[in-house]
Write a structure and sequence with these properties.
Bound molecules: nicotinamide-adenine-dinucleotide
Radius of gyration: 24 Å
Number of domains: 2
Family: Belongs to the aldehyde dehydrogenase family.
Distance between the termini: 55 Å
Number of strands: 22
Active site: 271
CATH architecture of the largest domain: 3-Layer(aba) Sandwich
Pfam families: Aldedh (PF00171)
Keywords: NAD, Oxidoreductase
Largest sheet: 7 strands, mixed
Strand content: 15-25%
Structural class: alpha/beta
Protein name: 2-hydroxymuconic semialdehyde dehydrogenase
Length: 503
């Protein structure tokens, strides 16, 4: 049983891959001739590497129905030990098939092989292990309540699975973000219907093979491929049989999903966009700060929700930091994803590159100085068909410019000087988003003070994207709703029933 047949990447419903020949959209509900499908393109070359079978409404319905049945037939009541062992076996199996996941991640995204190995696939393994640990160690709330006349009552909460969870994820770190949600959902006894991004269908399908191999019951993990509204994403989030939606993606889509589920009042967990700031004080070790900052601006070609796009630098070190970042940008190696020398991949698609290039134009119109980049690179041979972009740094912009206000999601940052701590906090918090921030200083007290003053879900001091999976993750404002990670995930993926016993 494999995720791909020939060039088809298939849906996975009720414990089996659905053949594209099995009706139009696989659900038997389509009337169009031929298979509903779309091309999977390699962003590094622009070449089509597979065809993806698009689920129709009937197939999405089959997936939700299968998930419900799996819950009813026992999955929701499985012993915690059984579930956590299954998660650990899944982690082991991903490790055994590590290079297949690496290859699928690269085919989906064009990202460098070193990153796919060290971040994406390694984190998928870690996600399964971490949430097995969290669930195994979880307790439950209880209170002894004093009553009149010396009597007491015992209150305790029993946590039950949320039910059928719709998991809708984006393309930037597809396997990492998918497993970040699927692992806790399954650990808590839910069944999931996953809708991967249309740009990156490969790893979600491969994960279906692994979960079946380790013995996950049919219907507990389902994958439906397709787009948003009017396709699998829209059908899934509008389905009356889902009990909640966990979504990672853009703020605009999050708002749309919220509207879709509003009539049935389903819980949502939203991890949305960001326009993240770094604040760099003049007491830093410049080289160390530049090393951290360049990671935070350029990692994954700037396509991480946590990436820094606004760098506020105290005036006396502004030129040093700017010079250091330009030098680091010059060291990045764009190229063949399979080469271990490559540090930087392409953007996900030509459409996304057009969007990023639109911001290059806006920066120019706003009078920005381009310190480095600003062009589409020529890499030669096959790669010129890919969606490559130069890492780009600007000065001369202010918080009033759209380039500094809107999420670009590319390897770009605006460098802006400041004089005082108070001014820096004001500039960093002057945004509609509130996902992440980083503070760079050697003054311990200032580091804590400024990090706590950031109006964000995650603030780092002298580092970036350093995660302990037990800690809360999420954003405020346009950056999201709710938190996942550790106990926060348990809260979203379960519903408590409080039992009160008069003693
Ligand atoms: P997107 O919002 O376009 O798509 C995300 C997912 O939603 C995809 O699977 C898509 O098919 C689906 N979708 C689109 N419209 C839908 C609809 N109407 N109903 C249901 N599903 C729909 O986002 P993207 O371009 O794939 O990803 C990039 C965005 O994700 C950026 O804004 C980035 O900041 C954000 N992101 C946030 C986090 C976080 O943890 N906060 C992490 C990664 C990415």
């Amino acid at each position: 049983m494999t995720a791909e047949t020939g060039r088809w990447i298939r849906n996975f419903v009720d414990g089996r891959f659905v053949d594209p020949d099995d009706g139009d959209g696989g659900g038997g509900g389509g009337a169009r001739a031929g298979h509903r499908g779309f091309d999977a393109t390699d962003p590094a070359t622009g070449l089509v590497h597979a065809r993806v079978h698009e689920a129709d409404e009937a197939l999405v319905d089959r997936a939700v129905t299968a998930a419900r049945r799996a819950l009813r037939e026992g999955w929701a009541d499985t012993a915690v030990r059984e579930r956590t062992e299954l998660l650990r076996r899944a982690a082991d199996r991903i490790e055994e098939r590590f290079e297949e996941f690496v290859a699928a991640e690269i085919a989906d995204t064009g990202k460098p092989v070193t990153q796919a190995r060290e971040l994406d696939v390694a984190r998928a393994v870690a996600n399964f292990r971490a949430f097995a640990d969290v669930v195994a160690a979880a307790g439950q709330e209880s209170f002894l309540t004093d009553l009149a006349g010396g009597k007491r009552a015992l209150n305790y909460a029993v946590r039950k699975p949320l039910g059928v969870v719709a998991v809708v994820v984006p393309w930037n770190l597809p396997l990492l973000l998918l497993t970040w949600k699927v692992a806790p959902a399954l650990a808590c006894g839910n069944a999931v219907v996953v809708k991967p991004s249309e740009e990156t269908p490969g790893t979600a399908a491969l994960l279906a093979e692994v979960l079946a191999e380790v013995g996950l019951p049919a219907g507990v993990y389902n994958v439906v491929h397709g787009f948003g509204g009017g396709s699998a994403g829209g059908y899934l989030t509008a389905h009356p049989g889902i009990d909640g939606v966990t979504f990672t993606g853009s703020s605009a889509t999050g708002a749309q999903v919220m509207r879709t589920v509003a009539p049935r009042v389903r819980p949502v967990s939203f991890e949305l966009g960001g326009k993240n700031a770094a604040v760099v004080f003049d007491d830093v070790d410049v080289d160390e700060a530049v090393t951290g900052l360049s990671r935070s601006v350029f990692a994954n070609t700037g396509q991480v929700c946590l990436c820094t796009e606004r760098v506020y630098v105290q005036r006396s070190v502004f030129d040093d930091i700017a010079g250091g970042l330009v030098e680091r940008a010059g060291r990045l190696r764009l190229g063949d994803p399979l080469s271990e020398e490559t540090t930087t991949g392409p953007l996900i698609s030509h459409a996304h590159r057009d969007k990023v290039l639109g911001y290059f134009d806006l920066a120019e119109q706003a009078g920005a100085t381009v310190l480095t980049g600003g062009q589409v690179p020529r890499l030669g041979a096959d790669l010129d068909g890919g969606s490559w972009i130069e890492p780009t740094l600007w000065t001369g912009l202010t918080n009033a410019d759209r380039v500094v206000r809107e999420e670009i999601f590319g390897p770009v940052a605006a460098l802006i000087p400041f004089d005082t701590e108070e001014e820096a906090i004001g500039l960093a918090n002057d945004t509609d988003y509130g996902l992440a921030a980083s503070v760079w200083t050697n003054d311990l007290r200032r580091g804590h003070r400024v990090a706590q003053a950031m109006n964000v879900g995650m603030a780092w001091v002298n580092t970036w994207f350093l995660r302990d999976l037990r800690s809360p993750f999420g954003g405020v404002g346009l950056s999201g709703l709710g938190r996942e990670g550790g106990e926060s995930s348990l809260h979203f993926y379960t519903e408590p029933t409080n039992v009160c016993v008069q003693l």
